Amino acid sequence: MTTLITGAGGFIGLNVAEQLLAEGERVVALSLGPLHPEALRVFRTLPGRLSVEIGDICDPAFLRSVLARHAIRRVLHTAAITAGPDADPSRATRVIDVNVAGTNALLLGALGAGVERFVLTSSGAVYGDAPFGAEPVTEETPPRPASLYAITKLAAERMAVQVRDARGLDVLRTRLTAIYGPWEHDTGLRDTLSPPLQIAAAALRGEAVTIADGGSRDWTPGPEIARALVTLLRAERPAHDLYNLGCGRTWHPELLCRALAERFPGWSWRRGGPGEAPSVAYNDALDRPRLSPPSPARFEAEFGPVFRPPPEGAAAYAAWAAEHPALLAPRS
């Protein structure tokens, strides 16, 4: 069975592609531009078969052609523009085109091609301020998107539900949390790269960093998110159509700094004091702690544990970064 991954040049798509290829499956990677050379080098060593299609998710004719030529039966849709809270309003049209119209084009193409499972990656951003409150954030928490990105992700979800209910397409929705780790690199489609990537890149350069006193998040390694997504692609009779995916607990980036310092002796870092400006860019309001990160309890109750304790993920990423320095270089 062949799986189409959209947004395959991004690090979620690359993590899923790596896992499927390692298990001998056929993968079609759809991307707006070429995949990173390091990813292609690694993927060539795996037993599965990879095909790369370069094109725009907003081109319905292109999507229909890809779906037909490769006899696609499963789709993982990760293609999106992750616009930050300070995104230039002039970019709104393109963000809406990709995140909303592109999703609609793919849903209709998948329906016409006889796709058997469509997994949509949405975002915990649709919960708005709920993670800052005391109440647990579950799939039953009402969405209250407060940014352009969150609004477009919720719109994409609603279109997926409409196509499922009206036309019968087998669609599962996932809401992803703050992801970091292997294969993350600058694709030009995210306004701010994750603090863990920025910290790891600085460690590779031997450049000292100051991290914020705040900034704890439910950072979750990309390979663990990928394992959950692969599970949903294959699940025969899932009990639900919506799953939060993330580690469900917050931790401070100093945990990663300690792991990187063990890999790169002599590299220095420090945690700044309250109000001190960090050398790392954040997308968050650092003075607002996240008390209730979205819970993965529904997924893990049905499919078993996937998300490891944060120290294990941080140590694994430090080791991976040391082995793949090309991925952490600035985009040229």
Automatic annotation (TrEMBL):
Domain of life of the native organism: Bacteria
Gene3D superfamilies in alphabetical order: NAD(P)-binding Rossmann-like Domain (3.40.50.720)
Family assignment from sequence similarity: Belongs to the NAD(P)-dependent epimerase/dehydratase family.
Domain NAD-dependent epimerase/dehydratase: 4-246
Pathway in which the depicted protein is active: Bacterial outer membrane biogenesis; LPS O-antigen biosynthesis
Pfam families noted in UniProt: Epimerase
Coiled coil: none
Entry protein name: NAD-dependent epimerase/dehydratase family protein
